[in-house]
Design a protein that fits this description.
It is built from twelve helices and 15 strands. The chain has 390 residues and is α/β, with parallel strands linked by helices. It has a single domain (59-357), classed as Alpha-Beta Barrel (TIM Barrel), CATH 3.20.20.100. The strands form four sheets. The protein has an eight-stranded parallel β-sheet. It has a three-stranded antiparallel β-sheet with strand order 1-2-3, with no helix packed on it. A two-stranded antiparallel ribbon has the order 8-9. Strand 11, helix 7 and strand 12 form a beta-alpha-beta unit. The longest helix is centred in the middle third of the chain and has 15 residues, at 132-146. It is globular and about 55 Å long. Bound molecules: adenosine-2'-5'-diphosphate (A2P). Adenosine-2'-5'-diphosphate binds at residues 56, 257-263, 277, 292, 294, 310-314, 317, 320-321.
Length: 390
């Protein structure tokens, strides 16, 4: 088996081209945490493509959610990724590429090149669907586009909700500001997410871009706790505190933008993006180990027990990014890389692409990044949208 994984006795076992690869319990000390598939799926196999077995796939039209590739380029890239052994495919309703992914999956499944249980397909509830009835509606649409009966993991993409307006992904008022839905209720949404596991339309459920407070509120009323949290995480923004929090609550973590998302310059962030691969520490380690800077960056995160989803449409780089299981960073190198963490300042995806003073993610960032922010919860602490006093 290539690029698939199992949880055996609390240890995550990855199967890669190079053969069986096992991370010892010491590194995966939150072994129970990676057992989330088993927990969410009492009868099912524990299949989690961790480490490098991921392939992130984005939309072709420039938008907050996209990088610039045509559907054809994306299909070709996904073919390459699957050939290389990637089995975890991360997508989202808002990326608007589920159709293209569905076409590739259909080809691979019908040709018998891969079986459904070898794949780990992740998609996400869009902000316009962030209400209980939206879960069934938008998961249904995603499944239809992907041509699947179920996904392996369904994530609430963001903690804030937008009002529905026609079919707009980011509904805006005339002045261009986002139509934030201030009645967003995380607890109610989570109940609807749990129902989808019961219905068998997703094997597991999780969150993305949620902060500690927001996760805690979901956990409070959850029958099925979130299995996974997907957040921005890389060498300059290592999310130490949030990762510790997730470990404590048995929530696995998946890192988006693990290479710093340089391709999204001007799209996902308002600031000048740093080139993580050009960092002298990263470069020195890469040269000494005869690896590429990207491999060093990915390996550093993988070695923390965090899944990575590097995005690439380039054949060589897709290949390169998959080969991070056959080397280990020494404690000394890990310490050097750990020291590059800039904390919240290192955040790239600042959500400033949403216009308006009450842009949800802007508020979200303020809340996430400031210990005692002025962000307040509407309705006196009920799980709702956010408002800020600045
Ligand atoms: P490309 O698609 O041309 O390979 P992230 O996953 O952090 O969002 O980063 C994605 C960006 O990094 C894309 O611009 C991608 O470009 C580039 N990239 C992906 N893999 C590598 C690599 N191994 N070396 C250099 N750049 C890479």
């Amino acid at each position: 088996m290539v690029g698939c994984s199992e949880v055996v006795g609390g240890v995550l076992v990855l199967w890669a081209e190079s053969g069986l690869w096992i991370e010892g319990e010491e590194e995966w000390e939150w072994g129970e945490g990676v057992n989330w598939c088993a927990r969410s799926l009492p009868d099912g196999p524990a299949g989690f493509a961790s480490g490098c077995n991921q392939f992130r796939y984005r939309h072709q039209i420039p938008s907050p959610y996209s990088q610039r590739s045509t559907p054809e380029e994306l299909e070709t890239a996904l073919e390459t990724a699957l050939e290389e052994g990637y089995r975890h495919i991360d997508t989202a309703y808002v990326y608007q590429n589920e159709d293209a992914i569905g076409r590739v999956l259909s080809r691979w499944l019908s040709a018998g090149k891969v079986t459904r249980d070898e794949l780990f397909i992740v998609t996400k509830l869009p902000p316009v669907g962030n209400r209980p009835e939206g879960v069934s509606k938008y998961l249904g649409r995603s499944l239809k586009s992907l041509g699947l009966d179920y996904v392996d993991l369904y994530l609430v993409h963001v903690p804030y909700g937008f009002k529905e307006k026609d079919e707009e992904l980011t509904p805006t008022a005339e002045d261009g500001s986002v139509l934030l839905d201030n009645d967003t209720d995380h607890a109610a949404i989570w109940k609807a997410m749990e129902e989808e596991v019961t219905k068998g339309r997703t094997k597991a459920i999780g969150l993305s871009n949620f902060n500690e407070k927001q996760i805690e509120r979901v956990l409070k009323g959850a029958v099925l706790p979130p299995a996974n949290l997907q957040v921005e995480l890389h060498i300059y923004f290592q999310q130490r505190r949030l990762v510790e929090f997730c470990k404590k609550h048995d929530i696995t973590v998946c890192a988006y933008s693990p290479l710093g998302s340089r391709g999204t310059a001007g799209l996902l962030s308002s600031k000048e993006l740093p080139d993580l691969m050009d960092n002298p520490v990263v470069k020195e380690i890469a040269e000494r180990l005869s690896r590429t800077p990207a491999q060093v960056l990915l390996r550093h995160t993988v070695q923390r027990g965090i899944a990575v989803i590097p995005k690439s449409t380039n054949k060589d780089r897709i290949r390169q990014n998959f080969k991070v299981l056959d080397f280990t960073l020494s404690d000394e190198d890990v310490s050097k890389l750990d020291a590059l963490d800039q904390g919240p300042v290192g955040r790239i995806v600042d959500f400033s692409f949403f216009k308006g003073e009450t842009a949800a993610a802007y508020l979200l960032n303020k809340e996430r990044d400031k210990e005692n922010s002025e962000v307040v919860w509407i309705n006196n602490g009920k799980l709702t949208g956010l408002i800020v006093r600045y």
